[in-house]
Recover the amino acids of this structure.
């Protein structure tokens, strides 16, 4: 009997297993449900995800290696080890991942029963997308835009986006910015609020309007020389609406507003094979003499942006060095040395090499409070000064240009010295905010004093120069200014052929190699197989 | 013969190739693990044993790679329990998952510490036999997981024995590093100084005495190439970064110089800079087993203890294996087979072989990396003795010493001796199988298999300070549980119709895999000195969050199997299987695949007449099968990822790898045909097989343009085709009363082609060394899998193009020539292929009276590697080849300082002057340019890589065992012994031939992943000598 029972038991078991195995998929969905990440994302979460891709991060290594010497905001004493365009590659990746985030968010909003309460969020996103797209387009020129960032929809065509001309990108962004300015609502309390997660402007819609409108002004002015027909009316309209100078707002990612914001990449960009030095071009705009004791310095930003060499001498590195230029050494950005032995800029080599030239201020690498900027009040003033100096979209007015210029200089000097003063790490030569009188003194320095008699020539150069100084921590934007003004930003005239042969050929970045490999047809249509860094982008004069 | 699902069948009835290897054959020469024991013994079975470190993982591939990115190793089935042989990784990680998620692209940064794989821990003494089911044809019945072939392992179940049934085996083996790369020992460290003067001066101490060269000197006052403006940058922007081993310095003639530790020593060469990093290792194994049997059944119990001291310092392991095998006849109709095996492995400091950084992210743990990249020809091994202060703390003078700041040499001995990671594995493998004859024509089988194991990694990094505070501690524990249930009903009938026997099997199985890992790290500083736990933490920084990892999947299957036998010489087997895999989208959970094979024993079917005198046996076989497979878990639902940057972790972004929302199972189909022949009463046996395996619809993450918003997309794409032949010849050459000689030869040729990728996808990166401008292995349509890409020489009418450097740029023609360098192709091109042409083994067994001599050689012909070591040593001026001109055998040359020497060289080739043929290069440059400027291994700029590609053909004397068995009469006299034998053993003794230069290690390939064409930071070749005693009581 036992045997039979056993046999029956086994038989039933085997048949049971066969039936079970052929039908049991009921736990499959839960077994394969991802345990990491989130299958759903809210509007706020996607917003923060978008912002995260706007932080500078590793791009700064590229700025320190190439963009500073190109703009002459700084100089490198020997060619960089980092390859040219690495920041462009990183930005490319950030932007297109952001386009996917943008499209995801808009798709999500479209599924909600009442989409009208997301108007403010849409306007914020359109503003941010315009900012990021224009930044990228100024690096590359034409690029995929209207077809891009759509792989999330899985259609075959979405994997190989076509290229848009830069003019078209500018016009689309202008249109988005105008939509934002016209549709932001400060009064509609039903509008969905990002709340504390709005790391850019803390959900201050008035400031969002100023930001969108100021960006519109900048965009229109940047393209004005190439397309005055489209740009002129935008400038005119923007000037009638609130701009960032209305309440002295500087837009960017402020560590104070973003708990635990990771600024390690900034430190890394100075700590790793950084060869930046103060160049003679910037020195010319900050000191009235070449006295190495710094007695000629009239611009309070000088001692914040830079510091003297190991012998405490203000010795800028020649912007265009010659064979007889003494070689530079030292280790002025070594975090562990400078934080324990502040005066040692030579480093601890055996024997140590000599830091002969004035450096970028070491505190840039140590600071954890200064924002990563998008757009400043000072820049808005300079843009207005430019518009009135040249009569872009408005009637020319040298007096207004001067007023805006002076206001721009004052805003810039005040902003930077305040940031330096408030930075917790700044100890030695900590900046102080100049008084109104001190600013007035600076404004009356012959180098700074606005040439109201020649507003569209020398005066214009002064506007660009001060804007160029204000853009010290936005070198990519200074590069755009350099190109769109046809090289009217400051340039050292001594041995200028060095600059032309060394950096003059760098007009744009090459597309990332993934474009040639994985978007070959469209890449070919755009480049004809010759993706040259020497090709001028559309906005370049 | 044991076949799929453990079904025993007559060999003659099989329509597929199924090679049987006995357990005794595998353990003849005391292999460290069963994979190494299988080397050379099965046709088409390729075993990679990288770097010969015992306890490291092994890679087995049968008949080539079937998966472009996934696991290509066969399924291992031990008594019905399915396991795999992937390398064990911390964090519950799996190489396959990492590959498929694109995380393993740069080989230099991944998985350099090798903790072994499953086949390391299975005890060879407990194995009865191996059945090697090749390709999906034979593995169709293992479903998805058997697509790469199956190795069926049957353990010993005991049997009736004479005497007590006790056996004791002991073996002891010494593992000696012997094959070190050959380097020059004439010229000491230095980099560009040799370009400035025929008599480069030493740098001096603050006291003015000549001192040792440091890395800072390399990047110091002479970092620029003489004749080129400073603003053009340093030498490494022209030639690439060298390591600290750069040996372009002064001739070492015994002159006294000051070393980094302040001591003055004679400046002399070191003929073997590697030697002080290795020692002779040892492995000893004790095995006791009991076996018995009777009417009720049989039982075998065994215990094995293995102890190993590694060839690197402070590295060892020990392993205990308890094994129980039994077969019980419950009744005439019901039989139970039960096996259980418990393994406990404890491994201290598995060596970090080729990595720049260790698993803890610390510099200075990779022995291969440091010795290859960081030690100049004047290296003197003094750091080890200076590592510790008297109070046990770290000597910071060593840590901050100058010669090797970036390579980590200054940390090596501290990390090796004071930072301890213990890997512990506890594994229980159990199996119960019940078979019952329910009716005379119907039987049922039920089977439960469980594989449960934990992997734990505990790291205790000794505090570097005397107070015992600055240490760290981490603990990582993963638990894996694999269950499989099988049930089968088999109906069989002899003479169902006239001359036709039939058997039908209906079965089902359930397979579930679950893994959970939890890891945490206390980075220090500690509150309490020298106390290692997670709560002993004293820092204002928040304690780092622990990490988790999970993996879970389930496969359910039903299958049917019909066997028909006609007149005992024609056999047909038809099968079909349906799987349900949890890893696929819901609409694709279920998938079906069929198989069939036919075997025809023609020697029994036809009257062969006189041919029968020499042809004893002949069979032809043919098979066609399909197989299908799911994917890795959690990839079918779209999930957003949190940004990795601090400050933004409350956000979510679209994932950069878009998941596989629309995938279906990946599939393969295979065809196989072959012939098995026996001659002269089966004294000579020949098996020949041809196969073609086509693996398609592979699920892969393919790169897409980032401008689409994502970097990769997972889809069904790509196909690989494997075609090849295998042969096995066994012969009893001599068979006399006192002397016999048996030969077994096997060999295989495989062609492994990438047939298709997604339209628009030009290539699939498999892996790279240093990425970008380094060396890459990519799969491109039409290529052999394993093709190596890199820059090659640019040529004009077949001549290499030389670029001449002038002070104002390349090829400007203005002024004197400063240097010369070969021009590279504009893009990465095919420079090699890792797939061997033929692999195989030859074994000879001689028996003379009670002596037996077993000699196994194995060989690999064809297949290339890029040798990063060769490139490094040529570029760093360490290879012996680089001294020719420095020794005065070059052309007359004048240095910038006016000094002269016969160190000049003309790079053979032409200058591209716009004409079709160019003009011959006649520029004499310092020979430094020939080597340093054309070989560096780093990737910061394009340089020629094809000059370090070698065809890696070799033959090796793998195993020698000389055994003496005590004669039966002598054994009987002892009363206590039933048998006694003693063996002398040699393993990996030497290479019969190799085509690599400078004594490079032919088996020093990097890692056991799919990237098998790169070699960097190899360890020396290791040979073993030992003896074993086997006694039965």
């Amino acid at each position: 009997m036992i045997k039979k029972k056993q046999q029956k038991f086994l038989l039933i078991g085997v048949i049971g297993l066969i039936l079970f195995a052929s039908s049991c998929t009921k736990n499959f969905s839960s077994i394969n449900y991802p345990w990491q990440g989130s299958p759903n994302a809210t509007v706020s979460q996607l917003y923060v995800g978008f912002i995260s891709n706007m932080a500078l991060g590793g791009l700064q290594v590229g700025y320190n290696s190439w963009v500073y010497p190109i703009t002459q905001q700084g100089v490198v004493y020997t060619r960089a080890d980092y390859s040219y365009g690495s920041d462009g590659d990183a930005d490319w990746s950030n932007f297109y991942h952001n386009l996917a985030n943008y499209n995801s968010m808009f798709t999500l909003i479209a599924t909600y029963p009442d989409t009208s309460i997301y108007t403010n969020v849409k306007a914020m996103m359109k503003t941010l997308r315009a900012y990021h797209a224009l930044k990228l387009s100024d690096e590359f020129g034409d690029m995929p835009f209207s077809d891009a960032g759509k792989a999330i929809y899985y259609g075959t065509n979405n994997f190989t986006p076509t290229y848009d001309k830069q003019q078209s990108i500018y016009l689309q962004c202008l249109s988005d910015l105008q939509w934002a300015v016209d549709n932001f609502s400060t009064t509609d309390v039903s509008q969905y609020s990002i709340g504390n997660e709005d790391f850019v402007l803390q959900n201050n819609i008035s400031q969002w309007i100023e930001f969108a409108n100021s960006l519109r002004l900048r965009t229109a002015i940047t393209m004005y020389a190439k397309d005055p027909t489209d740009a002129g009316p935008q400038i005119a309209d923007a000037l009638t609406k609130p701009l960032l100078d209305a309440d002295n707002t500087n837009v960017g990612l402020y560590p104070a507003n973003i708990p635990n914001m990771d600024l390690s990449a900034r430190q890394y960009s100075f700590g790793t094979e950084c060869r930046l030095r103060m160049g003679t071009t910037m020195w010319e705009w900050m000191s009235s003499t070449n006295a190495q004791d710094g007695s000629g310095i009239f611009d309070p930003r000088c001692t914040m942006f830079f510091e003297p060499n190991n012998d405490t001498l203000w010795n800028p590195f020649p912007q265009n060095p010659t064979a007889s230029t003494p070689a530079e050494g030292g280790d002025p950005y070594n975090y562990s040395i400078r934080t324990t032995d502040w005066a040692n800029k030579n480093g601890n080599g055996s024997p140590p090499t000599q830091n002969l030239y004035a450096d970028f201020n070491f505190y840039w690498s140590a600071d954890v409070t200064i924002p990563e900027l998008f757009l400043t009040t000072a820049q808005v003033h300079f843009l207005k000064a430019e518009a009135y100096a040249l009569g872009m979209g408005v009637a020319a007015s040298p007096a207004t240009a001067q007023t805006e210029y002076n206001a721009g200089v004052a805003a810039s000097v005040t902003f930077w010295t305040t940031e330096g003063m408030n930075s917790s790490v700044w100890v030695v030569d900590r900046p102080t905010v100049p008084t109104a009188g001190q600013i007035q003194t600076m404004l009356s320095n012959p180098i700074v004093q606005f040439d109201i008699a020649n507003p569209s020539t020398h005066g214009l150069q002064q506007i660009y120069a001060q804007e160029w100084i204000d853009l010290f921590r936005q070198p990519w934007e200074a590069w755009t200014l350099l190109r769109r003004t046809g090289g009217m930003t400051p340039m050292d005239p001594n041995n200028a052929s060095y600059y032309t042969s060394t950096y003059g050929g760098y007009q744009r970045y090459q597309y990332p190699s993934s474009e040639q490999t994985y978007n070959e047809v469209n890449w070919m249509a755009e480049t004809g197989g010759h993706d040259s860094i020497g090709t001028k982008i559309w906005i370049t004069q | 013969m044991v076949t799929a699902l453990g079904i025993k069948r007559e060999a003659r009835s099989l329509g597929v190739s199924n090679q049987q290897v006995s357990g005794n054959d595998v353990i003849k020469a005391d292999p460290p693990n069963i994979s190494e024991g299988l080397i050379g013994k099965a046709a088409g079975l390729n075993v990679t044993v990288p770097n010969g470190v015992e306890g490291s993982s092994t890679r087995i591939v049968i008949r080539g790679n079937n998966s472009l990115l996934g696991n290509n190793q066969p399924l291992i089935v031990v008594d019905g329990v399915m396991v795999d042989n992937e390398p064990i990784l911390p964090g519950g990680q799996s190489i396959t998952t990492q590959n498929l998620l694109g995380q393993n692209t740069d080989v230099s940064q991944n998985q350099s510490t090798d903790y072994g794989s499953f086949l390391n821990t299975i005890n060879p003494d407990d194995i009865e036999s191996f059945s090697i089911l090749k390709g999906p044809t034979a593995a169709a019945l293992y479903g998805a997981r058997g697509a790469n072939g199956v190795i069926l392992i049957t353990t010993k179940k005991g049997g009736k024995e004479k005497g007590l049934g006790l056996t004791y085996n002991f073996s002891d083996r010494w593992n000696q590093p012997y094959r070190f790369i050959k380097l020059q020992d004439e010229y000491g460290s230095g980099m560009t100084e040799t370009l400035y003067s025929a008599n480069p001066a030493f740098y001096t101490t603050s006291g003015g005495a000549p001192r040792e060269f440091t890395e800072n000197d390399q990047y110091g006052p002479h970092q620029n190439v003489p004749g080129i403006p400073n603003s053009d940058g340093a030498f490494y922007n022209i030639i690439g970064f060298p390591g600290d081993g750069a040996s372009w310095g002064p001739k070492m003639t015994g002159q006294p110089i000051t070393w980094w530790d302040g001591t003055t020593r004679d400046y002399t060469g070191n003929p073997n800079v590697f030697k002080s990093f290795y020692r002779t290792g040892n492995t000893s194994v004790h095995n006791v087993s009991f076996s018995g049997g009777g009417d009720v059944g049989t039982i075998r119990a065994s215990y094995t203890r293995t102890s190993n001291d590694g060839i690197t310092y402070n590295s060892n392991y020990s392993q205990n294996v308890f094994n129980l095998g039994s077969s019980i006849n419950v009744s005439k109709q019901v039989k139970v087979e039960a096996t259980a095996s418990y393994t406990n492995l404890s491994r201290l400091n598995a060596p970090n072989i080729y990595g720049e950084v260790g698993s803890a992210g610390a510099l200075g743990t990779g022995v291969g990396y440091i010795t290859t990249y960081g030690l100049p020809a004047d290296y003197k091994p003094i750091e080890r003795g200076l590592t510790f202060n008297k109070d046990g703390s770290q000597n910071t003078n060593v840590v901050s010493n100058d010669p090797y700041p970036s390579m980590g040499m200054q940390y090596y001995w501290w990390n090796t001796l004071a930072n301890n990671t213990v890997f512990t594995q506890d594994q229980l493998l159990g199996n119960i199988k019940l078979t019952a004859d329910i009716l005379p024509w119907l039987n049922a089988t039920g089977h439960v298999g469980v594989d449960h194991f934990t992997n734990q990694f505990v790291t205790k990094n000794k505090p570097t300070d005397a107070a015992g505070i600055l240490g760290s501690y981490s603990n990582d524990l993963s638990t894996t549980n694999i269950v499989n249930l099988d049930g089968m009903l088999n109906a069989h009938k002899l003479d169902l119709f006239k001359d036709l026997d039939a058997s039908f099997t209906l079965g089902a199985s359930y397979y579930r895999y679950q893994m959970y890992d939890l890891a945490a790290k206390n980075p220090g500083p500690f509150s309490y000195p020298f106390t290692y736990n997670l709560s002993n933490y004293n820092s204002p920084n928040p304690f780092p969050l622990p990490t988790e990892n999970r993996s879970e999947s389930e496969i359910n299957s039903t299958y049917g199997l019909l066997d028909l036998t006609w007149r005992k010489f024609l056999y047909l087997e038809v099968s079909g299987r349906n799987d349900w895999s949890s890893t696929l989208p819901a609409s694709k959970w279920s998938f079906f695949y069929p198989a069939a094979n036919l075997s025809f024993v023609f020697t029994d079917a036809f009257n062969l007449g006189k041919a029968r005198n020499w042809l004893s046996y002949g069979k032809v076989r043919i098979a066609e099968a399909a197989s299908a497979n799911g994917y890795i878990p959690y990839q079918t639902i779209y999930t957003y990822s949190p940004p990795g940057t601090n400050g933004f972790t409350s956000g979510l972004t679209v994932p950069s790898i878009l998941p596989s929302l629309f995938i279906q199972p990946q599939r393969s189909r295979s065809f196989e045909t072959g012939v098995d022949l026996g001659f002269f009463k089966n004294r000579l046996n020949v098996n020949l097989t041809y196969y073609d395996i086509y693996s398609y619809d592979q699920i892969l993450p393919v790169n897409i343009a980032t401008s689409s918003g994502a970097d990769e997309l997972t889809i069904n794409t790509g196909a690989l085709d494997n075609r090849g032949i295998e042969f096995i010849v066994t012969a009893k050459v001599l068979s006399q009363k006192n002397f016999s000689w048996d030969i077994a030869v096997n060999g295989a040729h495989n062609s492994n082609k990438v047939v298709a990728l997604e339209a628009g996808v030009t290539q699939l990166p498999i892996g790279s060394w240093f990425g970008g401008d380094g060396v890459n292995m990519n799969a491109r349509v039409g290529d052999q899998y394993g093709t190596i890409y890199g820059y090659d020489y640019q040529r004009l009418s077949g001549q290499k193009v030389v670029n001449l450097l002038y002070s104002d740029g390349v090829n400007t023609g203005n002024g004197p020539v400063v240097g010369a360098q070969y021009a590279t192709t504009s893009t990465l091109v095919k420079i090699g292929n890792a797939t061997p042409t033929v692999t195989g083994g030859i074994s000879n067994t001689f028996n003379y009276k009670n002596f037996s001599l077993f000699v196994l050689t194995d060989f690999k012909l064809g297949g290339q590697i890029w040798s990063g070591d060769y490139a490094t040593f040529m570029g760093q001026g360490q290879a012996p080849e680089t001294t020719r001109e420095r020794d005065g055998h070059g052309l007359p040359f004048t240095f910038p300082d006016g000094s002269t020497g016969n160190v000049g060289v003309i790079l053979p080739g032409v200058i591209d002057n716009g004409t079709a043929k160019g003009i011959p290069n006649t520029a004499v440059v310092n020979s430094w340019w020939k080597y340093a400027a054309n070989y560096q291994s780093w990737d910061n700029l394009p340089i020629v890589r094809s000059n370090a590609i070698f065809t890696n053909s070799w033959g090796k004397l793998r195993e020698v065992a000389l055994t003496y068995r005590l004669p039966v009469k002598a054994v009987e006299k002892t009363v206590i012994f039933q048998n006694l034998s003693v063996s002398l053993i040699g393993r990996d003794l030497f290479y019969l031939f190799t085509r690599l230069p400078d004594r490079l290690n032919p088996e020093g390939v990097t890692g056991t992943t799919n990237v098998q064409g790169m070699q960097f930071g190899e360890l020396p070749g290791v040979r073993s000598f030992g003896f074993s005693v086997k006694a039965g009581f």
